[in-house]
UniProtKB/TrEMBL annotation:
Taxonomy, superkingdom: Bacteria
Gene Ontology CC: plasma membrane
GO biological process: cellular response to phosphate starvation
Protein name: histidine kinase
SUPFAM superfamilies: ATPase domain of HSP90 chaperone/DNA topoisomerase II/histidine kinase, Homodimeric domain of signal transducing histidine kinase
């Protein structure tokens, strides 16, 4: 009986610690626990120690799983960015080599379409690199780094809607802007908030079929400003909804993976303004993003 209550549990504890040190986290609680999760009676004397070891094992196993998922998502994200760079670069090199062909004498009028395409793709690459630089900057952003200025939020959002409607990808989509106010003065980092709202609107375009209706609405409730981006598209399942603000997460692995600011960065921008962002969605019913900003009308 002495060995049952003292020696065997100590051997189990030493083996469990060895398993953890070797990375076999899930093996730590295989022997000492019943199916209902309670400690078996021979190990009851060391119950607290054994339960703590088991908890450590499960925590480390979960951390390993989360790290593996993060590494996988990061790899896919890098592959997506690489693809987004490679495609326009192929146009630049292809058209450049065509123009440089010494066996052909080009007229200026013949060259200009190629030059314009090279310029367009070059600007695309420049904007993509700027987005990537901003992504790394936003990782460490806080309120003290915001370049705050007073703006009319109604005009600000109207300009974003004009820009988004002029995007080539947006031509087959319907857009609406609704505001309860003719003007609304507030203080924000105009550049960062522009990118956040623009990204939410582009997200609605990229993840929904053509003819989807996308609406940006603005209202004020007491000392809060509400901005809502709503669409009547395909919606999201519970798994996507749960992870939508996670870094490197993509709703559709086959889609372009966060070539600009991801929703994680949108959340960071919003929160740096002492604001909140949330999302509501259902499959087949569309998606709504809600941004709630504090109503700050003047500099302190």
């Amino acid at each position: 009986m002495f060995s049952v209550f003292l020696v065997y549990p100590l051997i189990y504890i030493m083996n469990a610690i060895r398993h953890i040190s070797q990375g076999n986290f899930i093996d730590t609680d295989a022997k000492a626990f019943k199916k209902n999760g309670k400690v078996k009676w021979p190990y009851f004397l060391y119950k607290e120690v054994i339960m703590n070891i088991a908890n450590v094992g499960r925590t480390l196993d979960k951390a390993r799983h989360d790290r593996e998922q993060l590494d996988k998502s990061k790899t896919e994200w890098i592959a997506g960015v690489s693809h987004d760079l490679k495609t326009p670069l192929s146009y630049v090199t292809g058209y450049s080599s065509l123009i440089m062909n010494k066996d052909h004498q080009w007229e200026i009028s013949d060259i200009m379409p190629y030059v314009e395409e090279i310029y367009s793709k070059g600007m695309y690459i420049e904007n993509l690199i700027e987005d990537l630089n901003m992504t790394f900057f936003i990782d460490h952003i806080d309120k003290s780094q915001l370049k705050l200025r007073q703006i009319d939020l109604v005009v600000f959002l109207q300009n974003i809607m004009v820009d988004i409607a002029n995007e080539p990808k947006a031509q087959a989509y319907g857009f609406g802007f609704e505001s309860e106010l003719d003007e609304l003065e507030t203080i924000i980092d105009e550049r960062l908030m522009y990118r956040a709202v623009f990204n939410l609107l582009m997200n609605a375009i990229e993840h929904n079929p053509e003819e989807t209706e996308i609406t940006l609405s603005l209202s004020k409730r007491g000392d809060e400003i509400h901005m809502n981006i709503t669409d009547n598209g395909v919606g999201m399942d519970e798994s996507t909804l749960k992870n939508i603000f996670e870094r490197y997460y993509s709703k559709n692995e086959k889609a372009k993976l966060h070539k600009g600011l991801g929703l994680c960065n949108v959340k960071q921008i919003v929160e740096a303004h002492d604001a909140q962002i949330s999302v509501d969605s259902a499959l087949g019913k569309g998606t709504s993003f809600y941004i709630v900003l504090p109503a700050i009308e003047y500099y302190l």
